[in-house]
Amino acid sequence: MFKATVIVKRRPTILDPQGKAVEQGAKLLGFNNVKNTRIGKYIEFFIDTDDREAAEKELKEYSEKLLSNPIMEDFEYHLEQVKQKN
Amino acid sequence: MFKATVIVKRRPTILDPQGKAVEQGAKLLGFNNVKNTRIGKYIEFFIDTDDREAAEKELKEYSEKLLSNPIMEDFEYHLEQVKQKN
After folding, report:
1. A Pfam family for this UniProt protein (chains A, B) (predicted)?
2. Does B41 touch chain A (CB under 8 A)?
3. Residue B77 pLDDT more than 80?
4. Residues paired with residue A42 on neighbouring β-strands, in sequence order
5. Is the ipTM of this complex over 0.85?
6. Could you tell me which of B72, B42, B45, B40 has the C-alpha nearest to residue B58?
7. Chain A interface includes B29 (CB < 8 A)
8. Would A86 be classed as within a structural domain?
9. In this complex, do B42 and A37 lie within 8 Å of one another by their Cβ atoms?
10. B23 touches chain A (CB under 8 A)
11. Rounded to an integer, what distance in angstroms lies between the CA atom of residue B71 and that of residue B68?
12. Domain for residue A50, yes or no?
């Protein structure tokens, strides 16, 4: 069993309207030092196999096809073997 | 200037419908080993001060009031001093 952590971020050149909106709220609440907020996704899941190569392959495909939008997002990942949860 | 990274996650006891929906898609695409997907937020921003205590205070308040929902989410953060961007 592997535990996967995937971080999906918009490419720096791509505008982040959600980040902009949150930052406007920050100004209203007086958080004037906050700059350049960018919001991405933090995804955790388990891969039920003991074969690291197969786990990595499945993780990459899952990330490319479902967890991120390759046109405007990049992802980075971490894969860690864990004991089977009963 | 400080660079902040905040990870917002739903508490383990709270259902994650978004994670469930993505995982159903995974099954349809044949990713049968993927289990227990949970989706959170990965937020990056800068805090324009050289006072670490002030930066940490502003980061915590910003995270509690705008970036997370304290009723169902927890957050963890990382704060790193960086050179001023011109």
Report:
1. PurS
2. yes
3. yes
4. A7, B40
5. yes
6. B45
7. yes
8. no
9. no
10. yes
11. 9
12. yes
